[in-house]
Amino acid sequence: MASSAVKSNFYKWHRVLGLAALIPVIFWTLSGLSHPFMSNWFRPSIAKEVFKPLPQSKMKPVLTIQQVMDRNHIIALRNFNLISFKKGTFYQVLGVDSVYNYYSATDGVLLPHGDTDYAEHLARYFVQDSTSAIQISLQHSFDSEYQTINHLLPVWKVSFDRPDGMDVYVETGQSRMGTFNNNTRKAFLSLFEEFHTWQFLARWGGDTFRNVVLLIIMAIMLFALISGLTVYGLMWKKFKTMAQSRKTKGMEDKRFLHRFHRQIGLIVSFVMFTFVISGAFHLAVKLHNSGLVKADYGQVIKRGQLLVSNLALPVADSLINKIGLTSFSGNVFYQVTDKQKQLSYFNAGNGKEQLNADEDYARFLSTYYHTDEFKTFSGRVTVHQVKQFDNEYGFINKRLPVERVSYPNGENWYIETTTAKLATKVTGIDRAEGLSFIFLHKYFGMTWAGKNIRDIVSMLAAVGVLVVSLFGFASFINNK
C-alpha cells in the first residue's frame, strides 16, 4: 500500500503539472472548437472551383512557339502553355527569370501586365463576379490567411471590394485556385493559427523552436493526465469513505468542485489521451521531417532544341487540353495533357512519341528530389498515376494528377510531372502519424455518421477536456 508521502507527492505534482498545462489547454480546446465552424458550417462557397481550359482546336493558334520566340528574341525559356482569355489566344511563356509573359498566338505581340490580367480573369471566373473592384498582389510565401496547407506558390491574391471581403488565390501557371476566404473564414483562420498552431512562436524563433516548445507542453499535459489517474487510483478508497461519511452525517458537500473534476476527468481521460498522443506524434514527425528541402527542379530549354513545331504533333488538336515542355535524360519533350488528364510525350527534336515517358520523368524527378543520402534499392521501383485523392494522398496536397513512385523500403514519392514539383513524400512513420492524426485527433472514425455528427462528437470531446481543466483550476483556487 502506498505511503501517505507518496500520495502527497503525486497529488502535488498533479497540481503543478495541471496548472502549467491550463493555458495551453484553454487555447487548444477553444480554437479546436472553432475548426468545425471554419471548415464545415461557416465555410464560404464559391461559384466555380475548377477552371476548364479550351481544347487547342478551339483556341486556334496561328503562330508556333518557335515563331513567337523568334519574333521576341527569346533565346531560352523554362516552359510554355496556350491559354485563351480577353477574346484572344496567348502563349503563356515562363522565362528563364521564372516570370510569366504573354504573347499573342496570332501576331506574337507581348501583352502588357499579362499575368496580372490572367489572374484577374481566373479569379472573376471562380467567383463569377465581373463588376466588383479588385486589388491584386503576387504572393511568394504563406501567411495567416494563405497557410502552408494550401501548398501552391507563388500565387496571385485577388481581393474583391464587396461586403464579404472575398479573397481568391490563383496559380496562373496551372490555371487553378489555391483557396478562397471571406471575412468570417479569415477571422477563424487567424484565431486557429495563433491559438492552435501557435504561429507566434514561429515568428519569434522559427518552426523548430515552436515545435519543440509545443512538444514540451504536450509532455506536461501527458504527465498531468497520468498523475491525475494515479492520484485517483491511490486515493479512491479515501474519496469513497469521505463521500459515505458526508452522506451519513448529512454534511454539506464543500468539495464538490474536486468531485466534479475527478468524475469528469475519468470520463474524458481517454479522449484527452488520444488528443495528446496524436498531437505529440504529429509534432515529433514534423521535427523528424524538418531537414533541408531540395530546390525545385528548374529546366532551361534553348530555342535551338525545339526543332519540331508544337502545332505539328501527331495528335488531334481537339484532344490537347494543355501543352508544355520537359527536359530530362538529355532530351526535350512536348508534354501534352488530354481531356482525361493522360499525358503524352513527343520528342521536340524529331516529333516521335516517347512511350511510358511520364513514368520515366517521375522516376527522374523523384531521384532528383532525394537528398545526397539517396541509396540504390535492391527491389523494384514502381510508378502509378494517381488521379483521385485517397487516405494516403489526401486533398490537402492539392495537386492532381500525380505519379506515385514507390520504393522497396515502403516510401512513396508523389510527383506532379506537369510542374516538375514534389507534391509530397510518405514514409512508414508518415503513414502511422497520418492515421493517428485523422483518427485520434480529427475523429475520422466517425465519418460513417456524417461530417456534422463527427464534428459534434469532436467538439463535445474538446468541451469535456476544457471543463475538467477549469474544474481543476477552480478546485485549486478553492483550496487557497
TrEMBL record:
Where would one find the signal peptide in this protein? none
Q: What is the name attached to this protein's record?
A: PepSY domain-containing protein
PANTHER family, per database record: BLL7967 PROTEIN, IRON-REGULATED INNER MEMBRANE PROTEIN-RELATED
Domain of life, per UniProt, equals: Bacteria
* Annotated TM spans: 212-236, 264-285, 456-477
Keywords linked to the UniProt accession: Membrane, Transmembrane, Transmembrane helix
Which source organism does the UniProt entry give?
Mucilaginibacter ginsenosidivorax
One Pfam family from the UniProt entry? PepSY_TM
